[in-house]
Amino acid sequence: MSVDVETSPGDSARTRASSSDGRSFSVRASAAATIRPGDYVRIIRPDGVDLLGFVEEVSPQDGSGLVAAGSLIDEGSEVAPMPFTDAAAAPTSPDAVARVVSGPDPELVVGQLVSTPSVGVGLVPHRLNRHTFWCGQSGSGKTYALGVALERIILRTRLPVVVFDPNSDFVKLHAAREGLDPPVAEALAGRAVRVLRPGEGPDALRVRFRDMGAHAKAAILRLDPVVDRGEYNALLRLAPALQGVDPADIPPRMREAGGLDGEALAQRVENLGLLEWQTWAYEHEAATDVIAGRPAATVLDLGGFHSGDEQLVVALAVLEDLWARREERRPLLLVIDEAHNLCPPEPEGPLGIAVRDRIIQIAAEGRKFGLWLLLSTQRPSKVHRGIVSQCDNVTVMRMNSPGDLAELADLFGFVPRSMLAQSARFRQGEALIAGGFVAMPSIVRVRDRITLEGGIDVRVPMP
Question: For residues 274 and 456, what is the distance between their CA atoms, to the nearest angstrom?
Fold first, then answer.
């Protein structure tokens, strides 16, 4: 973080900074200087003005030295940008960097700078109103780190969170770890976190077929409005008459009231086994009702369903309901863990396509309605590129694949490439965080969780 640019008295004369525009800078130093991308340097202009510089690139120069280049940080002062030459460059203090990256609320700090653990890096809460991409290969600590971020958001903001949780990793987001500081435990207990899971009872994860639009219903039934026009039309005609009907009576009612097309529709329902799914709420509370009440967080435990189609149905019902209510403009953070399950580049079947397409629409248009996405996955190529390209925030944990790193560099041009390249050498729990939701691109070691992890790795049995 702080830069050792003056390695000896003889080197100081060669460690000088210049700027052609007053906004960026370059520093020439000896080859022995310790300067890395992501570090900070103090620059004193010839007129005595003290500036803070952020190092983005470091390259060797003429075999005998190096050149570091980056951006001058606007610290809110009245100093006008102006070009300069032959400025002094010196190490900066952790306190100076903390004033830039830590933020005013220590509870929003998600980790500490790897290079200087005394400096915390905090989220910028008002910039959570942008889509976020979160990635890291298996074993990088991606899910743990995401849990840290969600805890901070739940504790210190009033932004409701909905988590699509296919692996049951966040089902304990409401459960505090033992030994937690009493004030933090009390604050967590005061935030409403609903965990909805397949099964019976007040926290059953269910949705209502009747509340869904015709397009969504057709996707569930695998109906094409043109190819299957008879059955599709029967669905439109019979839907009002089936409101409140006992599930077992739905196929007979379709046959009685729908003629040949009703018979075909009833057969489709029976053949697909839809009435045997544990997905349907009927007259009970649905997940959409819970989310409409805006608890601090709603975790949808999709991992408890027996079939992938049931996971997709729940996701589609929730996304359709939120999109139908978009004009309410009620802010909501939609966290899609293992996002490749819901929005892959090439989904299978009409149900998968319907879910993917709705997420694409939310990515493109949802921001102005207060619907903000946070997509977590192992590889960027596993998620539809049109969705990832809409993200303005990014967290990258260990990524060894050169192809993945190249794709991330192409998608997120605001991330210094030299910092992104370091992710191949990250240890577990280290992350590069960049975009509007942090003050500066930063490589951090993620702080400890305050809630329990829902899914942890199975350990190898040992003697």
Answer: 32
- Set out the domains of the chain in order of their start, with CATH numbers: 9-92 (2.40.10), 107-205+282-446 (3.40.50.300), 214-276 (no CATH)
Helix/strand/coil for 328 = helix
Pull the structure tokens for residue 459.
């350990």
Q: For residues 399 and 408, is the Cβ–Cβ distance under 8 A?
A: yes
- Specify whether the CB–CB gap between 291 and 336 falls below 8 A: no
- Cβ atoms of 256 and 248 within 8 Å: the answer is no
CB atoms within 10 A of CB 461: 5
CA 4 to chain CA mean position, Å: 35
Please state, in angstroms and rounded to a whole number, the distance separating the CA atoms of residues 304 and 186: 30
Confidence band for 455, pLDDT divided at 50, 70 and 90 = low
Q: What is the DSSP string of 399-455?
A: ---HHHHHHHHHH-TTS-HHHHHGGGGPPTTEEEEEETTBSS-EEEEEPPPSB--S-
d(CA 212, CA 324): 10
- Which is nearest to 431 in space by CA: 398, 457, 386, 405? 398
Q: What is the mean pLDDT of residues 125-146?
A: 96
The tokens for 338 are: 């293992």
In tens, the pLDDT along 292-324 reads 999 999 999 999 888 899 999 999 999 999 999
Binning pLDDT at 50, 70 and 90, where does residue 253 land?
confident
